[in-house]
Specification:
2 helices, 7-stranded antiparallel β-sheet, 2 domains, alpha+beta, 8-stranded antiparallel β-sheet, single chain
């Protein structure tokens, strides 16, 4: 009898573990890195972590009064958003110093990216409102809706300015920089309006909906059965020795 009781208890314990594993599997899970967006970041002599970072899962939307970087950038309000399938960044009143005499400015700069749940593809876009690069003797007008990876001509020896810069990682993650700047003759970079989207839907899903709960309840029943059997067997042993 004791062996049977022990067998029931061991079985119940095993099912309890299995039920716990299934319960965890049925809870929301995010396997991929977060979708994210931020207003500005810099690397090089002047290094600044992403400003106004919004993420999903995480915190979104995020609004900051500016994304100023001393010696490089002044801006107005920045708004960044990220959700399960998209991200976007908008910066207002942008003014970036390429040199002491060359300035890039725009009324607003925006980037966005989206994962299409029907086609399984990620796409991105960027827009620039009243964007210009002012040089000592001329002014370059920036495209309002630039094609991906548009390099601004006329800045040789000053900087490489790429509009709607898009890069795809090995896992399919798309990064869109509305404007990416690399200063010539240094390691200084500046990115404006960055959006990052995974090639997947980050919405929480249940791996095995409706299964973990019944198993968990069944396991509790088995544990109760094992406990009751042990209790009555112990009483019989005590009565027999009395």
């Amino acid at each position: 009898m004791n062996r049977k009781i022990n067998g029931i208890v061991k079985t119940a314990a095993s099912l309890t573990l299995a039920g716990g594993v299934l319960a965890m599997a049925a809870s929301p899970a995010f396997a991929a890195s977060p979708n994210e967006a931020y207003g500005a970041a810099a690397t090089g002599l002047i290094s600044v972590s992403p400003i106004g970072l919004a993420t999903y899962p995480g915190t979104s939307p995020v609004t900051v009064v500016n994304a100023d970087i001393a010696g490089l950038l002044t801006t107005g309000v920045v708004t960044d958003t990220a959700d399960a399938t998209s991200a976007s960044s908008t910066i207002n009143n942008v003014s970036a110093e390429l040199t002491a005499l060359v300035t890039l400015s725009a009324d607003s700069v925006t980037s966005s990216c989206t994962f299409n749940t029907n086609t399984g593809t990620v796409s991105g876009t960027a827009s620039i409102t009243n964007g210009t690069v002012v040089l000592p003797l001329s002014t370059i007008t920036l495209a309002a809706n630039p094609a991906p990876n548009t390099v601004v001509a006329g800045l040789a020896g000053i900087a490489t300015v790429t509009l709607n810069q898009q890069t795809v990682a090995g896992d399919g993650t798309l990064t869109v920089n509305a404007i990416a700047i690399t200063l010539i003759g240094s390691t200084q970079t500046l990115t404006l309006g960055t959006s990052v989207c995974n090639a997947s839907d980050l919405s929480p899903v249940s791996i095995m909906p409706g299964i973990a709960m019944p198993i968990g309840l069944g396991t509790l029943g088995l544990l109760a059965l094992g406990g009751a059997g042990y209790y009555f067997n112990r009483r019989r042993r005590v009565a027999a020795t009395a």
